[in-house]
Fold this protein.
Amino acid sequence: MIAGDGIGPEVVESALEVLRAAGASLDLVHFEIGLGRWKRTGEAMDEDDLEEISGCDCILLGAITTPPDPNYRSVLLRLRRALDLYANIRPFQSHDLDFIIVRENTEGLYSGVEEVGVEESRTLRVITRRGSERIAEAACDLAARRRRLTIIHKSNVLRSDRLFLQTCREVAERRGILYEDMLVDAAAYNLVTNPQRFDVLVTTNLFGDILSDEAAGVIGSLGLCASANLGKSRALFEPIHGSAPDIAGKGIANPVGAIRSAAMMMRWLGELEAAGRMEEAVKKALSAGVRTPDLGGRCSTSEVTGAVTGYLMAEES
Ligand code: IPM
Ligand code: MG
């Protein structure tokens, strides 16, 4: 468990309450990682943390504020990289929408290969066949149980994306998945004008980052959205939202993204039944109008949590 900074601890606490109500029995290890730790010790995370984290089955993370030091690399990016969590799975669900963005999580414009100068700076966009293949496989695993795959790219301009597109096509064809491809700018437009047309989307790192915030806006709020960062045997689950220091401590953060992330974690752990019940309870609370201010509601974090746990308990008795 990495509660992190800002609203991180508040939403993680809420997710824990819901996990308990769903009957999860977890052997929790808490890590103090993030801005708070950096202020105290000058380091947000160290190698010992990484080693200890590697010994855990999976990670539930709240949110981390990147320290205000231009030389500091985001802790989240370090974790994704160190644990090789190459597939960022971001489901978007509302009353009439249901699609998943599968974002490559280790390369692209997040390569970290940069030359920084006063007059000119460069970032190297790295696309590899291996990286494209494994993210395409992850997307096809999902699409196989759904309708269709959309490969999103900018290969009319970026030659690096020809490799991405070609590799994704090959994988989809080999797997017998129904697919199409779409330029990223058109995808951004279609996400707003006709989001129903999407099912599973696969794309490179930065495009996935941007499109997933857009998708969150389309379904109503970043506060609703969960994600799984998956590697071969490791996984990190986190709400898509950040640490939102402006509302930290006010008790109004939307815990749904964290609760849904915890449900994704349960599913990954093989606890399908509990995961399904957690997701259902969240849906019930939302349709009953139990909503935090980001959704135009007046409920507090603990009221939303209470409603969700209430539905879970009611079902049990
Ligand atoms: C996300 C975030 C991160 C990213 C930041 C915090 C480094 O925006 O998970 O979408 O860019 O991947
Ligand atoms: Mg983002």
Remarks:
- Residues 11 and 255 are 5 Å apart (CA to CA).
- Residues 160-175 form the longest helix (16 residues).
- The chain has two domains: 1-85+225-317, 95-113+120-219.
- The mean pLDDT is 96.
